[in-house]
Amino acid sequence: MRNSPIPMRLCFLFLLFALFPSQAKPQGSSDALLRRARSQFKQNKLTLPYRDNALETLQKLLKDDPENREALALVEQIKTTYLRWAQQAESLDRLDHARLYYRRLLVADPGHGEARKRLKSLTAQALPETSQKASTTVDTSRMSLIPAGKSTMGSAEAHPPDRTPEHAIQIDSYYFDLYEVSLGEFVAFLNEKGNPENAYIRVDRGTAIRQENDRYTVEQGKENHPANFVSWFGADAYCRWKGKRLPTEAEWERAARGNTDRTYAWGHQPPTASFLNLTSERDWKKVLLPVGSFKKGKSWSGAYDMAGSVWEWCSDWYSPVYYKKSPSRNPKGPATGQHRVMRGGQAGRSLLHLESSYRAHNVPGLQGPLTGFRCSLTPPE
What we know:
The chain is of the alpha+beta class. The protein has helices spanning 6-19, 27-42, 54-64, 69-91, 95-108, 113-125, 183-193, 232-241, 249-257, 284-287, 351-354, and strands at residues 143-146, 149-153, 167-171, 174-177, 209-212, 215-218, 311-317, 340-343, 360-362, 371-372, 376-377. It folds into two domains: 24-125, Serine Threonine Protein Phosphatase 5, Tetratricopeptide repeat (Alpha Horseshoe), CATH 1.25.40; 143-377, Alpha-Beta Complex (paralog of FGE (formylglycine-generating enzyme)). The protein has eleven helices and eleven strands. The longest helix is centred in the N-terminal third of the chain and has 23 residues, at 69-91. The radius of gyration is 25 Å and the shape is globular. The protein starts with 5 loop residues before the first helix and ends with a strand.
């Protein structure tokens, strides 16, 4: 029997496709991306903080089909929408919202001159992040006044390298929250200031906060649990709303360990269930406990939950080599960056994360199940 020529022809075709792959993108792929982008646009998921957003979908489409008219038009609509939202927020004197929308517009159009000009002006109007003074209206009853003095920062341990070298710093006096901000406290903020484009905190079926129209509530029994799913933007906006500010990384570490080499906030004793929440539970709703649950785990400054609860946002931009060149007095972190510093070590059994010198970091838009914060404040002169 003669061999069929078909296998040889098929091999030839396969070779052609391998050597000369089709450069054309299937129309169906573009259509699917357009449908997805339209849906995201209708839901106002325009760009960050949404990981699944219209701008990224459109950019993916335009990479393969740069002349797609509808995609180009949708990108322009995103820019126009942010500009309109920012201008409306300014007219209502909601400057935090306006700054956020101008930043979003610059993500979509980095060269937008008007957005850059307005953002620069609005940022100049904002209170300095690390120098806001206490006023007679700020309640400091649940804060610790930490005196000026020397403090130890960093670690002699080489791992991880971003916390070396261990060094002495001098810090001016400041107030520091004894407790992490709770869900009940954060909801009060949301009900007054809103949650523009869900940038401050994630609210959906997976969280303990409920939203009905413009009203926010907390799942029953969770009011005194630490606020979580909070972005850096939400933490910063809340502290400003209270007349406070986010702590610097140096302030956070001084509140945890003072001028000592203590490994943990409570001292050198190895972590046990008496000091913090050493849970192995993975369902975050079962992980977090009410703020201030571990009296034995308090730091020398009286602050609770400095380890083993939620990661706490700090005001600083992150740099892995900052300790090698940071100033010796009131260090405030680098001038710019991509990530913000997080401190505190989440609930769980990672002992390294619980050490007071451990530095975490992430993008400021992160809204994770274990991202929270507390506030700081500069005393009046």
